[in-house]
Amino acid sequence: MNTNWTHPLERQSVGKAFVSYLVPSVLGMLVIAFNFIIDGIMVGHKLGSTALAGIGIASPVYTLFVAMSLWIGMGGATLYSTYMGKKDPTTAKQIFTKSITIILLITMVIGYTAYTFKDKLVYALGANTETFPFAEDYMNIILLFGFVFTIENALTIFVRNDGNPNTSMYAQITFAVANIVLNYITLYVLEWGVRGVAIGTIVSASLALLVLLTHFFKKTNNLKLTRFKWNAKLLASIVLIGFPSFLAELGMSVFSISHNISLDRIAGTDGVASFTVLNYIHGVVLLAFLGLASAAQPLVSYYHGAKQMEREKQTIRLASRTALACGVLLLIVVQLGAPYFVQIFGNFSDSVTDNAVYGLRIFTFAYLFMGINFVMSTYFQSVGNAKMAIWITAAREMIIMVALIVILPSFLGVTGVWLAVPLSEMVVLVTIGMYYKKRSISERINGLTIE
């Protein structure tokens, strides 16, 4: 690298830098979310609530692939930005090459291995005789070709971390628009059913990948494939730092499976269908919060590597306040619009509609806490405090949530299912506050700054 070269983050104020990453990151995620909503509407209107439930049951497989790409992608991209902050582009390029290679190999092995026992897998995820055909059709395509969108997803993160959030956004827009068009063709013109939805996802990811590849022709590109040796210490750092991102996506699978199983037991197929509708809407919020946290991550990683601690703190304060404001706004919007949001997915039975609306109005209280939890998990991940990042992610999506979803329905029925996530998010935010209080006391006692 030219010694006179200056990273754009060195030339911008924290506020301006944050906004320059926030806008394309959140817009890109919202476009992806809008695509998922359109998917749900198309499937709901064309194939009905049982097909919608089938896709919901198979969706953890898609989530697992995304989790793998985020695990290595986020871990690698975080280290990439940190080493760029340290002015060590050689190591940064090796990290990029290792990450892409690992993602491709792992996701292909997982997909082809799982394909050999896919029928058992479908039932294990909560399918019954009604939903099995739809879940199987979706899963067949995703298992065989899922490596395409894992590479696309990981490269989106690296391109953003290489100072080009706009190209990442354009790729996300390409994916969303192409997916909507292809789903219309496969569902309404070719009538390929759920299998067509899965095919549309893979083809759309391929087109988005082509958009991301344009970054490599820009003069500002620092992402280059290079020869590398398998450095165990560096590989361990990628795995450890990225593990909270893997847990976050894996937690979505746990979220879906636990709700599907619990609701199937309490309310049958109608209960699962109502959750699938809620999950489409919830997916929009999750992606918005993920976009917000993703905007902060490159800045925090770079500032941390460059030892610009005050800028690092300013970034987190901005991100946390933005998350809280978004949470309040989303709570108000969903509370007022819940019946209308549910209706756009199709003309369902009163049981499905009423349960989905009721669930949404309870569930959305989680948004008051969820955004800040996302930001804080990303912060700890970006500065190398994997222990705290893992705790936040595992507690909110697995440990506390699963415990609540097992215990509460015994006393509150279906209401207990809907309450599990809001209570989980609130408890986790309290533990973050306790961590900072304990750290503050330790700093005063020892006179040290503890990372």
From TrEMBL:
Q: Which GO terms describe its cellular component?
A: plasma membrane
Subcellular localization: Cell membrane
- Family annotation (InterPro entries): MATE_fam, MATE_MepA-like, MATE_MepA_subfamily, MdtK-like
Q: Which UniProt keywords apply?
A: Antibiotic resistance, Cell membrane, Membrane, Transmembrane, Transmembrane helix, Transport
Write down a Pfam family by its short name.
Answer: MatE
Membrane topology per the entry is: Multi-pass membrane protein
One example of the protein's molecular function in GO is: xenobiotic transmembrane transporter activity
Say which domain of life the source belongs to: Bacteria
Q: Where are the transmembrane segments?
A: 21-42, 62-83, 95-115, 138-158, 170-190, 196-213, 234-257, 277-303, 324-346, 358-376, 388-411
Report if keyword Transport is assigned: yes
Similarity field: Belongs to the multi antimicrobial extrusion (MATE) (TC 2.A.66.1) family. MepA subfamily.
- Name assigned to this protein: Multidrug export protein MepA
Natural source organism = Paenibacillus xylanivorans
